[in-house]
């Protein structure tokens, strides 16, 4: 199973969120954040096994960044 996540730095730690489940965790390094995310998603999917099957069927085709301009005020 592949996870699709976004990661950002916040207050000196790396925060990571899996896109489809919304599971979010953190780590002091990017590697630690990723490891923590895998563990957290595994626990989450134990509670919701039907989501695991759904995640395995998703045909992920790519990602991109979208910037939204601040409103003028």
Molecular structure report:
With 73 residues, this protein is of the alpha+beta class. The protein has one domain (5-57). Helices cover 37% and strands 22% of the residues. It starts with a strand and ends in a 16-residue tail after the last helix.
State the distance separating the first and last CA atoms. Answer: 45 Å
Largest sheet: 3 strands, antiparallel
Question: What Rg do the Cα atoms give?
Answer: 15 Å
Shape: globular
Q: Which class best fits the helix and strand makeup?
A: alpha+beta
Number of strands: 3
User: Which stretches are poorly predicted, pLDDT < 50 over at least 5 residues?
Assistant: none
Q: Could you spell the SSE succession in H and E letters?
A: EEEHH
